[in-house]
Every structure is written in C-alpha cells, then in structure tokens.
Design brief:
The chain is mostly helical and about 160 residues long. Helix content is about 75%, strand content about 0%. The chain has 6 helices and no strands. Helix 5 runs antiparallel to helix 6. The radius of gyration is 22 Å and the shape is flat.
Length: about 160
C-alpha cells in the first residue's frame, strides 16, 4: 500500500519522510519554498513521470519501514551496540549534517534579507554542528575504542580465571 500520492503537499511528504527530500533533489522538485503546493503541480510543470517518482518515494519508505524493526539490544554485547551506533547513528549524522548546513546557508542567502532572524538560526545550527562533530569524533577515536578494549580484556581475564 502506498503511503504517498501526488495530491499531498510536497512539504508534508518531506515532513513525514525526510529521505524524500533526496529524491526530490534528484528530480529537481523544490521542497523548500515550493513545499506548500501539491506534488502534482511540480510533476505537471516539470513533466516528471508521476508513477516513477511516487514508486521511488513509496519504495524507499517501505524499505525504511521494513528496516525499522529493532534487535533486542538488551541481549546485545557492548561491541554490537557500539557498531550499531557507529553504523547507523554516527554515519547518518556524518552524512546529513553537511547537507543540512548547505540548506541552512541557502535559506539564509535566499530569505535572510527579509527574515533577519535566519542569521541567528544559521549561526546556532553551525554551532550545534561543530559540537556534534566534536562529540562524534571523541566517541569514535577515544571512548568507543577504550570500551571495546576493556570488553576484550575483561573477557580474556574471565577466560584465564576459568
């Protein structure tokens, strides 16, 4: 069953499924300033294959939903949890923060003259981005390797006692 259709507003689709923004970029569909109009308008204006676009969005959404099922993390080892954090959450942030930064800069450039508060939003986002990147780097280079080493040496000590 398809979740998204061409009668929905472009912005509503992106709000419900942020990954749709990447697909809209690929098809050059404006989801920012043009987000308040039905997808069908962009499809008609740009002569986009409606079924192809909607199939792509709905298929990506179905994949997202199917992969959202979580493992029982209570039973996972510390190393498994660390790998999950690195491969899912850290990888996502490393991938998305630069994209959001670029969008933030574009919004400031285009709309900043009429909305001076966007300058503060831009500055706050970039401060947050810098702090997040610093945090991720510390976890990846110091904390997680130390935890994995502790887990490994602790397991070896337990084996020696047996």
């Amino acid at each position: 069953m398809n979740k998204f259709n061409s009668t929905q507003k472009i912005g509503e689709i992106v709000n419900a499924f942020p990954k749709a923004a990447d697909i809209f970029k690929e098809y050059k569909v404006d989801f920012c300033c043009g987000g308040n109009r039905p997808l069908s308008e962009a499809i008609n204006e740009q002569n986009i294959n409606e079924s192809e676009l909607l199939n792509k969005i709905n298929s990506e959404y179905e994949n997202y939903e199917a992969n959202a099922k979580d493992k029982n993390w209570v039973e996972a080892s510390t190393s498994e949890i660390i790998e999950q954090i690195l491969n899912k959450h850290h990888a996502y942030l490393w991938s998305e923060l630069p994209k959001i930064s670029k969008l933030s800069t574009t919004i400031l450039r285009v709309h900043g003259p009429h909305y001076p508060e966007l300058s503060k939003v831009h500055k706050l986002f970039n401060t947050l981005k810098m702090e997040l990147e610093d945090h991720l780097t510390k976890e990846e280079t110091i904390q997680y390797p130390a935890i994995k080493e502790y887990e490994k040496s602790n397991s070896q000590n337990d084996l020696k006692k047996a």
